[in-house]
Write a structure and sequence with these properties.
With 176 residues, the protein is mainly beta. The protein has one helix at residues 89-99; strands at residues 2-8, 14-21, 25-27, 35-42, 69-76, 117-125, 127-132, 137-141, 145-149, 153-156, 163-171. The radius of gyration is 17 Å and the shape is globular. It holds the Pfam family Cupin_2.
Length: 176
């Protein structure tokens, strides 16, 4: 995946300041096919970066504070990968906690989770199922979008192919 970042030169003109792979990207060894990328992040009240300096090395939680953002791209392997006898859920949990601090802490054993965010999700490739805590399932395909309003949910890849989704998480206050 390629990330192009713009900024301004010393004369205030628009320039490309970075063009290359997403630096904060991880292919999990405990679950082949699971790939997590953090292309960008902002903190609450942060001004637009004039220089395009990469904020991702300083991110300590993938959960943004209210008004902050996280841009995350995930590739989900088929769910059958977790049924493989070689799959080690403890090792996967360890990798998740190292790669996705904040969010990993909210994960339940079945993948359900609730975050204090409004998430804009776009299916880039493949077919995936959004499951809500009442058991309701909604199938999504490439090009579909979902607005996740801080509800308990999980993602299920029932297909035989990887699914890639892009998410923008916007930190929000809980309503109760």
């Amino acid at each position: 995946m390629r990330r192009v970042v713009t900024g301004h030169d010393e004369n205030g003109r628009s320039v490309v300041v970075s063009d290359g792979p997403v630096p904060r990207s991880r292919e999990f060894t405990s679950l082949p096919g699971w790939v997590s990328r953090l292309p960008w992040a902002t903190d609450p009240g942060e001004q637009v970066s004039r220089t395009g300096e990469d904020p991702t090395p300083k991110v300590t939680s993938l959960l943004p504070a209210p008004g902050g953002t996280r841009f995350i791209v995930l590739t989900f392997p088929p769910d059958t990968a977790m049924a493989d006898p070689e799959f080690d859920p403890v090792a996967f949990d360890r990798e998740q906690r190292a790669d996705s601090p904040g969010i990993a802490d909210l994960m339940e054993p079945d993948g359900m989770h609730t975050t204090p965010t409004v998430d804009y999700g776009i299916v880039l490739q493949g077919d995936i199922v959004l499951e809500l805590d009442n058991g309701h399932r909604t199938s999504l395909s490439a090009g579909d979008i979902v607005i996740q309003n801080g509800t308990r949910h999980s993602w299920r890849n029932r297909s035989d192919h990887p699914v890639t989704m892009a998410f923008v998480l916007v930190g929000a206050e809980r309503d109760g």
